[in-house]
Write a structure and sequence with these properties.
273 residues; alpha+beta; Heat Shock Protein 90; five-stranded mixed sheet; two-stranded antiparallel sheet; 53% helix
Length: 273
């Protein structure tokens, strides 16, 4: 069609104004088609990200009950420890060696491999920290916690699981890429006037671009949602967060208001390094 119009122009059958108008229409159509294609691709990508975030948040929410139940069972065993010792002592004092052995075998069957590493007086956080600590230890990671009394936390449990769980998962994942003797995680969870969270771990070099970590996983579009989940949860609160990589360590630090999501302000203070 373009060739026919050009021939018509040269033969005087079509004037220049019409040809210019037609060319402008074609150019506009091409530009709009390109814009629509780009917009549609972006829209589909955002829909995919939202679906992934929703699915992960739902999965993490469903794990809260299981984590809390595990924590409660562990605390019950700890509470009954003195009673078990008294029973064993009575058997031994009376020379009932076989009874003591049978009792000990029963206790060993009931006991799990969970160790109460952190005690914050918040069942959700304690269950989560101890669960992640067990994963870390199985991967030869030196993990340490500094905590205080977190029983007064008003932040929604589902948000705590998303924030703390994802950041510890990222730290564990980074550590296992290093030799066993170089794997370290240090987490601080402290409640004063505000809630302070800090996660620091050894890591291979990390490239941080505009507040995002460049993923090395394939395909990249299917990864990196853990950190996005954290940021999404933080947007519900007046939060300050910062991430940095220096001297072989990656650190993610958060300071957030100790409020429920419904009580937070509409404005958010978010900072990314």
């Amino acid at each position: 069609m373009t060739a026919r119009l050009q021939n018509g122009y040269y033969q005087g059958e079509i004037d220049g104004a019409f040809l210019f108008y037609f060319a402008a229409v074609l150019l506009f159509s091409d530009v709009m088609t390109f814009v629509l294609i780009v917009w549609n691709e972006k829209d589909e990508r955002l829909k995919g990200e939202n679906l992934t975030l929703t699915a992960r948040a739902r999965t993490q929410a469903e794990s809260i009950e299981a984590l809390s139940a595990s924590y409660t069972a562990q605390r019950k065993l700890t509470h009954d420890f003195n009673a078990h010792l008294a029973t064993l002592s009575s058997y031994l004092d009376n020379g009932q060696i076989k009874d003591a052995q049978d009792y000990m075998a029963t206790l060993q069957e009931q006991q799990t491999d969970r160790i109460l590493i952190a005690n914050t007086r918040n069942s959700t956080i304690d269950a989560l920290l101890n669960q992640k600590a067990q994963v870390a230890k199985k991967n030869n990671i030196d993990i340490r916690f500094k905590v205080n009394d977190l029983s007064g936390i008003q932040v929604a449990p589902i948000d705590l699981v998303i924030i703390i769980g994802n950041l510890l998962d990222n730290a564990i994942e980074a550590c296992v890429k290093l030799p066993a003797g170089e794997r370290e995680i240090y987490a601080q969870l402290l409640l004063e006037d505000t809630l302070f969270l800090s996660f620091r771990n050894t890591s291979l070099p990390v490239e941080i671009i505009n507040g995002y970590i460049a993923t090395t996983k394939k395909p990249p579009d299917l990864h990196g949602f853990g950190l996005q989940n954290v940021k999404t949860a933080l947007k519900k609160y007046d939060s300050f967060y910062d991430m940095a990589y220096e001297d072989g360590y990656f650190a993610f630090t958060i300071e957030m208001e100790n409020d429920s999501p419904s009580a937070t302000k509409n404005s958010f203070l978010l900072h990314e390094s």
